[in-house]
Write the structure tokens for this entry.
Amino acid sequence: MSRFVLSGTPWPLPLALSLLVSSTSSERWRGAVGEAARLLAPGWDDDSYISDLGTLALVLHLRAQDDRLPQKVPVQEILATLAPVDAAGEPEFVQESWELLRQTGEAPPIAGQVEEGAGQVWLVQRDLGDRYLGGDMDELHGPGPSAFQSATARLRALLADLDEERREALYVVPVPSGSVQVQAAGGVKVITTGSVMAMRCTHKGCPAEGGTVIVDGMRARYVCPDGHTSSPRTLAPAHARWALRHVGHDPASSGRLLVDGLFHVPQVSESPRMELSANVWLRQQQRGSKADPEVLRRLDAAADEFDRW
Ligand SMILES: [Zn+2]
């Protein structure tokens, strides 16, 4: 599972929703994400930020109570929650939200075991609250603003003119189930602009290739044909979902998908929106390269070898 799933790249609303909700998400979180989508859908376009959607969902999740659904949290209360900031300019509701997540069991049960134990809402909040995003991790530089800072400012502007009457008239946005399983008959390849690397099982002694990629909210997993599950660092949920376009599926799909041939997923270090044609080998294939297939095979093998380093 990779961090910073929610930053940077703007996504279509259904894809953004599929990354925010997992198959095990609580009704409270699903309701909060759905209501956030309903409030932001009228203005959502190609440049909209998934961080706005995630931030608003966290506020609604925090302010909903057992007897009050996220849809019933007043706009004025949302705006009042977004406003206060601490000395670093970070919104104060985030600390309150961490407390709630500890109470609701979203926090990882053992500190440090985030990859296995954390719930979806925890992962969303950690991603949006990371203040080292975009930095070079140089210790000489202190932490910068988190994604929350710009998201709260945008949300306050976006919601400023919304009253309860106009809110009532907004359409409900369907929230996806959260999980997609992609089984590729030809196997799974992780690509960069200069390499194609077969995804292989990391289980000791298992030689298997091919298998299934599972994307569930903020997590991406690989299951080899022998059933070993791993979370390769090269595999990221947004990258895997966006790559579904190239095998004829909606990136926001849920359920089980069968792919006839190969499933190419850009490596996490690449832009999640990297097109397959950016890869030199795939571009040659697409153009019907006249190169000797044996030469291409050797190039492919060399790229594989290089990537193992
Ligand atoms: Zn295996």
